[in-house]
Amino acid sequence: MRAPDRRPLYRHTGVALLRAATVPLTHAPDWWPDPADTEACRVWLRQMWSWPHLIDAVRQASPNLASRIDAICGGRTVRAKQIRRAAMATARYLLRATGRPTPFGLFAGVAPATLGPTARIRWGDSHRPVTRVDTEWLADVIDRLEACPDLLERLEVVFTNLAVRRGGRLEVPRGPNRVTIRYTSAVQAVRDAAATPVRFGALADKLTEIFPDVGRATVRGMLTELVQQGFLITCLRAPFTVTDPLAYLVDRLREAKADTLPSVAPLLHDLEAVQADVRYHNHETTTGTGQGRAREKLTRRMRELSQAGRIPLAVDLLLDCDVRLPRHVAHEMEWAASALLRLARQPVGTAWHGFHAAFCDQYGIGTLVPLGDVVDPDTGLGYPAGYPGSVLPPPTDGPSERDERLLALAWQAMADGSGEIILTEET
Fold this sequence. Notes:
The chain is an alpha+beta fold. It has helices at residues 38-48, 52-61, 63-73, 80-99, 135-146, 149-152, 185-193, 200-210, 216-229, 245-255, 265-282, 288-305, 327-343, 350-363, 371-374, 401-416, and strands at 16-21, 108-116, 120-123, 128-133, 156-159, 164-166, 169-174, 177-182, 198-199, 232-234, 313-318, 321-326. It is globular, with a radius of gyration of 28 Å. The N and C termini lie close together (10 Å). The relative contact order is 0.12. InterPro entries: Lant_deHydtase_N.
């Protein structure tokens, strides 16, 4: 029960997003194969592979699995173990398509929802896939472009602001690891000269003037190495605020007149073709059949350019539906979110309690410390326990008073045979 004078800790702003699987639960298969029965798995796969929506979704999520099922259904010789594995993988995808709303390829998508006096829903079957190039694939293409000396001369570069000095070395994070170099006078000069974007060729000329005893080729080699190691960032890499990094890359290449470089022009032409195919696929007038053919064409073209990434083409799904929720549902969600917050550990769990205590022990209370210094595992604390790259042991604290109280409520509900726990101000 709620106290009449209490207000929820959260307020709904009027915006809602629906996440849903594309296949209703009623469309689940009538029977499932015995995982140990190879022939049953083969028959079941042939039945499932007649569902167009499943074929498209699996082809997008796992091209290798789709190719294997094609071989099985086509009567080609496939090992019994591979048939059973293909059936189990397909079963997992089917369960996801019917019961997991987390957006993933063509299995589940999103749509805007509204609030009103009553509930209303219209569910169609014309869901629209929207494609974009995979970031891992695009990063590999950019690596190839940055390895072209003639193009690099024309690109703007800037020194990363993630670089941190550790004694006589400079380091930048790279995934869970770090890349370090000696912080020489030359590196410091690069850092100062490239604090704001500057053309690579102009930067090389400036450093040659600063260090006249060093040839331009040597300077250029050092700058190229700084690009490869992530200390210098080229203009080909889009900021995270850019929603279409492929278009951003193509625009930067055009600005650099990459089409005049024989070593780069063919790749630029291919990227423009990929961009055109993506736009055709995402255009509202393209039919579902046309989109399917476009994705197959795009995947082949992109694989010819780079083998990086498990799937070169990422797909999001816009659901064909119109959903309106009653306003009182939003009000109940406000109270539910408030209750969950009050039930949660404060501030955010044992690992952060330990991290806070370690911080106070090392730096004192009320001390301002740069974040980069704090998370450095050698001179600081590193990341909190449980985070990638953390050197701290996982927390082993026992149950808190809060945990004991919640467990007592749960045990009492079990003893009473109740199916729920009523939360009140007293509990």
